[in-house]
Amino acid sequence: MFKTSFAVAVGTALGAMVFCAASVPASAHATFDRAEARQNSTWRGALRVPHGCNGQPTNVVRITIPEGVINVKPMPKAGWQLQTVSGPYARSYTLSGKPIAEGVREVVWSGGNLDDGHYDEFVVTARMTDSLPPGPVFFPSVQECATAKASWTEIPKPGQDAHALKSPAPAVMIMAQGAQSGGHNHGAAPAPAAAIKAGALMIEAPWTRATPAGAKVAGGFMTITNTGSAPDRLIGGSFPLAGRFEVHEMAVANGIMTMRELAKGLEIAPGQKIEFKPGGYHVMFMDLTSQVREGKPVKGTLVFEKAGTVEVEYRVAPVGARAPAGAHAH
Ligand SMILES: [Cu+2]
């Protein structure tokens, strides 16, 4: 169980990258299958319950609905009773032109019997209002067994590293309405920024994402083309807001998307064009010492075996963006 890889669930790699687990595989936690949603959108999430409470089967699953998440509709499950607990919201929201001031605050599936060795999903749909700031929103959840409980209720405090939590509350990364998204990175076409030439290498459109308060890591993305006739290798770099800089790759293993450090860096073969992007190769800014702010470019360096140290400037897209929104600003 002492895995040192970063594990995040498939399909959530982007948002989850800022609060991925360093020492515990995410599959051991209760998490949502879709851990990303845009403001003012309808979200459907399945809470994945990976095991029981210390060997006991799960009989009850409770999900607390955070403020700002409205119009909650849980999906009934065969063999379980479904109950919702409603109450007033802290403020009034508008849904389809109508004000609503109360709604579901808790969803409870009870009377079931989910074996410790089995896995199941508990589905809700909800409206993510624009009162939710970009960044993670947490859904504290509890599994109840005959005499034990598994509480997924820990929420990182400002400045606290989410990696450190033992029983993190399932989170959904909220993206600003304008933030570009899309599983296939349609928006990630090369931005019209001047390409940086370093020897035989051409580096285009470096970008990163704003980080929520307390985030300890951020990803860096760009396109690097080797126009020469000899291979070169990205072996490191620097980012002023980070304690460390790593080169990472992402790969799916056993249904879990995992990112890992490429300790020897990444070779760029002659004629090869490598796109560093969310869900693929990326550089990783570790141990952030301050928040990365949207719209404020950050200068850093990339270090190559042959081309040496190259200065680059990262544009900063919104939290959770999948493509360099605003890259056309120049
Ligand atoms: Cu990474």
Please describe what this structure looks like.
- The protein has one helix spanning 13-16, and strands at 6-9, 31-32, 36-38, 41-49, 58-64, 69-74, 81-95, 98-110, 120-128, 135-138, 141-145, 149-152, 171-175, 196-198, 201-209, 218-226, 232-238, 242-253, 256-261, 266-268, 273-276, 282-288, 298-304, 308-317.
- It is mainly beta and 330 residues long.
- The strands form four sheets. Strands 1, 14, 15, 16, 17, 18, 19, 20, 21, 22, 23 and 24 form a twelve-stranded mixed β-sheet that branches.
- The structure holds copper (II) ion.
Please describe the topology of this protein.
Layout: E1 6-9, H1 13-16, E2 31-32, E3 36-38, E4 41-49, E5 58-64, E6 69-74, E7 81-95, E8 98-110, E9 120-128, E10 135-138, E11 141-145, E12 149-152, E13 171-175, E14 196-198, E15 201-209, E16 218-226, E17 232-238, E18 242-253, E19 256-261, E20 266-268, E21 273-276, E22 282-288, E23 298-304, E24 308-317
Parallel strand pairs: 3-13, 15-24
Antiparallel strand pairs: 1-19, 2-4, 4-9, 5-8, 5-11, 6-9, 7-8, 10-13, 11-12, 14-15, 15-16, 16-21, 16-22, 17-20, 17-23, 18-19, 18-22, 23-24
Bound molecules: copper (II) ion.
